From TrEMBL:
Residues 30-76 form the Helix-turn-helix domain. The lineage of its organism: Bacteria, Pseudomonadati, Acidobacteriota, Terriglobia, Terriglobales. InterPro entries: DNA-bd_dom_put_sf, HTH_17, SinI_DNA-bd. It comes from the Bacteria. This is Helix-turn-helix domain-containing protein. It comes from Telmatobacter sp. DSM 110680.
């Protein structure tokens, strides 16, 4: 059975890069490292480490590490080029 990760914001379950991309496009506001970790199936420590090494887009706000969903979506598209076509279709439908 394939593991499914549940969105921290109560959206539909997701378990693949395309579903994560859709979830990111549907979110507003900033995400915490814990929320990003849950979406990507990683530990918060891994997300913090990736952010510190600038391997994943983030910024500091009031002493907290924050993640912009739209920046994460662009980053994911760059890492998974086949998602670019799907992203264009999703943006047209929205």
């Amino acid at each position: 059975m394939e593991t499914q990760f549940i969105s921290p914001r109560g959206n539909a379950p997701f378990n693949a890069p395309f579903n994560i991309l859709i979830a990111l496009y549907s979110l507003t506001g900033l995400l915490s490292a814990e929320e990003v970790a849950e979406m990507f199936g990683k530990s918060p420590f891994t997300i913090y480490r990736m952010a510190q090494k600038r391997e994943i887009p983030s910024f500091m706000f009031g002493g907290s590490r924050c993640f912009d969903p739209s920046e994460l979506a662009l980053w994911l598209i760059k890492k998974e080029p086949q998602l670019a076509v799907a992203a264009r279709h999703f943006q047209k439908a929205a």
